[in-house]
Amino acid sequence: xxxxxxxxxxxxxxxxxxxxxxxxxxxxxxxxxxxxxxxxxxxxxxxxxxxxxxxxxxxxxxxxxxxxxxxxxxxxxxxxxxxxxxxxxxxxxxxxxxxxxxxxxxxxxxxxxxxxxxxxxxxxxxxxxxxxxxxxxxxxxxxxxxxxxxxxxxxxxxxxxxxxxxxxxxxxxxxxxxxxxxxxxxxxxxxxxxxxxxxxxxxxxxxxxxxxxxxxxxxxxxxxxxxxxxxxxxxxxxxxxxxxxxxxxxxxxxxxxxxxxxxxxxxxxxxxxxxxxxxxxxxxxxxxxxxxxxxxxxxxxxxxxxxxxxxxxxxxxxxxxxxxxxxxxxxxxxxxxxxxxxxxxxxxxxxxxxxxxxxxxxxxxxxxxxxxxxxxxxxxxxxxxxxxxxxxxxxxxxxxxxxxxxxxxxxxxxxxxxxxxxxxxxxxxxxxxxxxxxxxxxxxxxxxxxxxxxxxxx
Amino acid sequence: xxxxxxxxxxxxxxxxxxxxxxxxxxxxxxxxxxxxxxxxxxxxxxxxxxxxxxxxxxxxxxxxxxxxxxxxxxxxxxxxxxxxxxxxxxxxxxxxxxxxxxxxxxxxxxxxxxxxxxxxxxxxxxxxxxxxxxxxxxxxxxxxxxxxxxxxxxxxxxxxxxxxxxxxxxxxxxxxxxxxxxxxxxxxxxxxxxxxxxxxxxxxxxxxxxxxxxxxxxxxxxxxxxxxxxxxxxxxxxxxxxxxxxx
Lengths: 458, 247
Prior knowledge:
The complex is a heterodimer of chains A (458) and B (247).
Chain A: H1 6-15, H2 17-39, H3 44-60, H4 62-75, E1 79-83, H5 86-99, E2 104-107, H6 111-116, H7 118-124, E3 128-131, H8 134-141, H9 158-169, H10 178-194, E4 198-201, E5 205-207, E6 212-217, H11 221-227, E7 231-237, E8 241-242, H12 245-259, E9 267-271, E10 279-285, H13 289-293, H14 309-313, H15 315-318, H16 331-341, H17 358-362, H18 369-382, H19 388-401, H20 404-412, H21 423-426, H22 433-436, H23 447-457
Parallel strand pairs in A: 1-10, 2-3, 2-4, 4-7, 5-8, 7-10
Antiparallel strand pairs in A: 5-6, 6-9
Helix pairs in contact in A: 2-12, 3-12, 9-10, 16-18
Chain B: E1 2-5, H1 9-14, H2 16-28, E2 32-34, H3 44-48, H4 52-66, E3 72-74, H5 77-85, H6 94-102, E4 103-105, H7 106-113, E5 127-131, H8 134-139, H9 155-160, E6 167-168, H10 184-187, H11 189-205, E7 210-213, H12 216-228, E8 234-237, H13 238-242
Parallel strand pairs in B: 1-2, 1-3, 3-4, 5-6, 5-7, 7-8
Helix pairs in contact in B: 11-12
């Protein structure tokens, strides 16, 4: 797999002033709303600890809770399937559909189905797949991945959407009024929903105790997808489990506040069993999760509830856009999840971070994101996935900085041959410092020189 | 009180005046300051780049240089963060644990250990934007953070408030990262520079004449950005203001 070039992608993103300015401001706006919502709850930090604890407990007893969930779901009349990986997930979904002669599937947003590449799989087998979330639909029509896990088309301006809709839905290319565009999507999608053979949702929380699932949306599109067609399939990552219904209160209080700054999503829908005359299926998907659960330094990332707060707060994400991460997950959470799938392909992502720690601070389940980024960097270097120049520079720096004599010699040569930090880092005609920044003045003496001179004079 | 001064490599090299201000300030406050002559670096550049193995010898040297001090003080938040929270490349030893536990960032040391209540020599009649570096803010927690629900406090502000004539401006995003990020500043140059531009423009809009910080690395990056934009902003380390610099 080709390595993702985050630097190149971000350079292109930044070159477009209108887009980057909007993108940064829009997501910073979400972060600001999130702060206001969080600060409105005095026990917020305690809630984060509680949520983290519930997830930690669940993940360390995951097999038990999965079996309890399955038992209760079956008792509720749900058909439960297990998928070890993306391929098995897609095959199962296709089998469910083809057995019933279903030719069309309407679905609400699901990062898991993105992860599995399900849409492409089903479309190649003649199934019409329709995204019903507005942002996700825009991305589907534009044949792009979602750039954000909550607001998938946040990198697009209204004029971009007008362009996509004009090409794909036949709207007026010069009308970028958001009400006009939203209405066009609604009018064109509703008939597809009404005539769909099957519906699919993702799952925000799967409750072991009841065998039910909870789906949170702001458009009510999960309800339409699940309730209009006679067949409802829910794709569920195995890390979505929580033990009891009472735990849901903790997470529902935090999810939308963290994501958008609203107290709750417009729709919080609870599904427990098939309606009369209908069918309901759960596909429980592993796809690398068990493997991640066994990683000492990284299993904590499985606590993620996909709120996107880490992306909204990330200054790098806001200035490079979700697509620059080249994977299903972007931003800080993408930087620590994607490498578990393909270390080589995503080896640049943990370096697309200043490790400022804001992501860790906003995470409602207290994932130590920036510390995991640090750990991933060590693994990437150990497995020789660092760019050659950086690796050699660090080796040289390590040698010089470990030796006071070499260090002092290096400090004296502003543009000397010694490839050491920090001088060569800045005063190097080949490096990137000076492209957009002025180079600092080179002082005549080091602190150490001054100190020795002063002591002599004393 | 005996104190060892740790002057990180880039301060030694680019900002000797920050090391000098720190030393003079500590002496003014009655500390007996040692500067171990064989010091180089804490190992952070290699560790942050994923090359902890290449940092092992540098970290071991750091431990050796600072082994016997009760207080190791440094005017750099990110380096102190590396010493306290990482330093994992050097072999585990009681010496390493002790050095970690005894290392303080300058603001912490002035605020928490010396509990300085006045800087009678300090006067800085300028409009100042405070840049809390991520190293001091989120790693060392020297001030409350906008993301975290809890009481408001700021150790650097409480020190600077004791300086005569100083005025503070309020940028829109007071604790967003400025984009320096160590080797990030060259390896992710486009985003780093953009973050820097946004940061200095924010301070400029708020009316700052100076940006002050406890981290020279952030200042170096921001100054590079501000000078390229010809914003006319000036940059100064907190040690210099507290030591009585007037401009």
